[in-house]
Design a protein that fits this description.
CATH architecture of the largest domain: Alpha-Beta Barrel
Largest sheet: 9 strands, mixed
Mean pLDDT: 94
Helix content: 40-55%
Radius of gyration: 21 Å
Strand content: 15-25%
CATH class of the largest domain: Alpha Beta
CATH topology of the largest domain: TIM Barrel
Number of strands: 15
Structural class: alpha/beta
Oligomer: single chain
Low-confidence stretches: none
CATH superfamily of the largest domain: Aldolase class I
Strand order of the largest sheet: 7-8-6-5-4-3-2-1-9
Shape: globular
Distance between the termini: 33 Å
Number of helices: 16
Length: 378
């Protein structure tokens, strides 16, 4: 393992039902499956974390972790802590959906040792929530934040989605206003993407669903930047805003090309330039570990060029931009020379600024970040 502390991601793939826009590795659990899955996670931790690796962040994501009993999540957390040299100030996040975030559940999770809560509110508008196929209403989402505060959570993140078919600028602004009123420490705003394999994609291809269009998406993105910045939130990554000192330290490991280990079905890992992924199906994952085998289905050592491209893409996602010198050091290549033409084109198009050593996306560049990265690398 690397000398730098790891981030540890734990994937809990179970949820109450599949939302029509969701392409995550998630599904409702089968009878008895959660118990077998937790045991498999503990076995993977025994196999993977055998040297008391140093770690300073853990993130329990999904799926919906809180469809499992808090006692089971607490037991799993303790099992992982026993395998790791965990920093005293470690950030330990658990995701929750409002319908499963009861006051009792949140109190148990806090007592178990989780210290950061990510709530999948997605909207504070009943019409938009219905369009997304969510199982809670706006009042329940607000209650989840209030319940968390009441039982001692002092580091709360709220996820929001914009660009929902039928959503108006007014509705999005109202959701932002209500979120700010709840004063979470962190807010993530994601533009809806219609992904292949989802119910939304089927509807879109059949002409039953219409996207809001790029112009309105850009308008909503700009509104989030303006309103949240005015409310004291730092826009530190394309989709993420935080009050001072409250950035998500775990996700920053990804954006800074740090080392991380993923446990669970479909989880990905990246350590010292080696990337691997686990079997996505929970049953395949459980079966591999029942046989005492790693559930890995894919692995590769990144080439110098791949390291350079990924470091650039991840750096451009952040407000501080990509340091070409650092990107070069990470990959052993001359990033400034290799990306020179692409960077000039971005600057000419008003999508980025540069001082020669650092490239920072403009607001429009951030809104078009994927296209921008492709243009630079080309």
């Amino acid at each position: 393992m690397n000398a730098e502390p790891l981030g540890v991601y734990v994937h809990l793939p179970f949820c109450a039902g599949k939302c029509p826009y969701c392409d995550f590795n998630s599904r409702p659990a089968r009878p008895g499956e959660p118990i077998a899955y937790i045991r498999a996670l503990e076995r993977e931790a025994e196999l993977r974390l055998t040297d008391g690796a140093a770690a300073d962040t853990m993130y329990f994501g999904g799926g919906t972790p809180t469809v499992l009993p808090p006692a089971a999540l607490g037991r799993l957390l303790r099992a992982l802590e026993a395998r790791l040299a965990l920093a005293a100030d470690a950030e330990i996040t658990v995701e929750a959906n409002p319908e499963s975030a009861t006051a009792d559940t949140l109190a148990e999770l806090r007592q178990a040792g989780f210290n950061r809560l990510s709530i999948g509110a997605q909207a504070f508008d009943d019409e938009v929530l219905a369009a997304l196929g969510r199982r809670h209403d706006a009042a329940r989402a607000a209650d989840a934040v209030r319940h968390a505060r009441a039982v001692g959570w002092d580091d709360i993140s709220v996820d929001l989605i914009f660009g929902v078919p039928g959503q108006s600028s007014r509705q999005w602004a109202a959701t932002l206003e209500r979120t700010v009123g709840l004063r979470p420490e962190h807010i993530s705003t994601y533009c809806l993407t219609i992904e292949p394999g989802t119910e939304f994609h089927r509807q879109y291809m059949a002409g039953e669903l219409t996207s809001v269009g790029e112009e309105l998406e850009l308008e909503m993105y700009s509104a989030a930047r303006t309103m949240l910045s005015a409310a004291g939130y730092e826009h530190y990554e394309i989709s993420n805003f935080a009050l001072p000192g409250r950035r998500c330290r775990h996700n920053e490991k990804y954006w800074c090309a740090g080392d991380y280990v993923g446990l669970g079905a479909g989880a990905h890992s990246g350590v010292s330039g080696v990337r691997w992924a686990n079997a996505a199906d929970p049953q395949d994952y459980i079966a591999a570990l029942d046989r005492g085998r790693f559930p890995v289905v894919y692995a590769e050592r990144l080439s110098a060029r791949r390291k350079m491209d990924e470091a650039l893409i991840l750096g451009l996602r952040t407000a501080r931009g990509a340091c070409l010198t650092q990107v070069g050091v990470q990959s052993g290549r001359d990033a400034a020379r290799e990306y020179r033409t692409g960077i000039r084109q971005l600057v000419s198009a008003g999508l980025a600024t540069t001082d020669g050593s650092r490239v920072v996306l403009t607001e429009r560049g951030m809104a078009l970040a994927n296209e921008v990265a492709i243009r630079v690398m080309a």
